[in-house]
Amino acid sequence: MALAAVLGLVGLVVWNPIPIMIGAFLGIVGFAERRAGPNLDAAVRAFDEDAPTRGHASITIVSGDLDDHYHVLLREESRPDSEYEFIPQGWRPVAGSYGAQIWRDRVTGVPVLATVEHGVLIPRGRV
User: Any idea what DSSP says for residue 91?
Assistant: First the structure.
């Protein structure tokens, strides 16, 4: 994100749109990384360090103007239900209820990763 800011300033100083466009692109990528990076890190850490528990995942799909939004409700025995939005990577979810393996954060206890038969569900927002 610092490089994006520097390129934006260089573009303004030399009054050239190319560094501004590259800076804008890098800024968008940096912003996306700041939101998704901690979730991916938590999911990988939980997968590597902890054993999953068995539960159920109920997937719902909310159709938007331009794209679909995918939500999952995770249910486990003796745990409160958890719900979050996820972005499917490399698979197309179908609404329904599925058996799931669920990994939780050791400190907070919130789910950071769930898998169903056809794909992986990592929270989209902050956990």
Answer: S
